Amino acid sequence: MAIDLAPKVSRRPVLDRLRRDRRAHIAVPLLFLLLVAAAAAPFMSDSVSATDTGRLLTGPSSRHLLGTDEIGRDVLARIVAGAVVTVGVATITVGAALIAGTVLGLIAGYRGGWVDTLVMRVSDGLLAFPLLVLALTVVAALGPGLRNALIAIAVVTTPRFARVVRGEVLSLRTRDWVSAARIVGVTRTTIMRRHLLPHLAGTLLVFAALQVSTAIMAEAALSFLGLSVQPPQPSWGAIVASGTDHLSASWSLSVFPGLAILLTVAAFNLLADALRDALDAHRPDLAPAR
């Protein structure tokens, strides 16, 4: 009876490495709680708007686990409802910026010439301003509101993806398999879609996770300034802003939503670091995508 002494090779090396990464052990449960809160928010609409006039600006108690705000609304219920805005920012703004930035970066990096110059000069012009300042400018032009805040964050995040993708494409387009595809008559669109884009997936995944944390901070800042979510819809930044007027009476009103922002941003950053190390450790040599 023959004994197979060959080492077993995992078919999912990235996932196996993530399972052993302590940063992923911290990030994944926190993000799971965020998704659970966002999913539970629609069923808590009554609790979000309900007021307990006998308990204004109270601290944590058995009746209100995280206290109440200035008109007696439950802080925990409002934080849970605010998770919907956070998940929306993470998916809509970063998703739109990912798609638009990838397309622009692919075209600019592969075609070169005046197209590359135009895309990169516009990107450099947008990146010259701090993200929050540029987002404030866009929101000021469009008007306050969650939709306009999402548009502003997506617009200012797109150049970041475009520059990252363009840099990767510049190093890939000189590969022999790209030249061979060009020689046999493969169209530019097919080369970008089938040969270049698959090699960008890992980089884009890590960069998107990092940009999610930046987008969440930007939306929280806009909400804090009253330029994003409008009352009575709750948002973590808006809850923090309302608590700053009552810090002497109730510390919990600002601390707990601020802690929610901190933990969510930290979770995405930890996940991005874990993904980067897992992908780099098992990154194969660049070869034509099949």
Automatic annotation (TrEMBL):
List localization entries: Cell membrane
Q: What is its main location?
A: membrane
Gene3D superfamilies, A to Z? MetI-like
Q: Which domain of life is it from?
A: Bacteria
Enumerate the UniProt keywords alphabetically. Answer: Cell membrane, Membrane, Transmembrane, Transmembrane helix, Transport
Topology with respect to the bilayer: Multi-pass membrane protein
Q: Which residues cross the membrane?
A: 79-110, 122-143, 200-229, 249-272
Q: Report the Pfam families cross-referenced here.
A: BPD_transp_1
Q: Does the keyword Transmembrane apply?
A: yes
**Residue stretches making up the ABC transmembrane type-1 domain:** 83-272
Q: What family does the database annotate?
A: Belongs to the binding-protein-dependent transport system permease family.
Name of the molecule in the record? ABC transporter permease
Q: Which organism is it from?
A: Streptomyces zaomyceticus
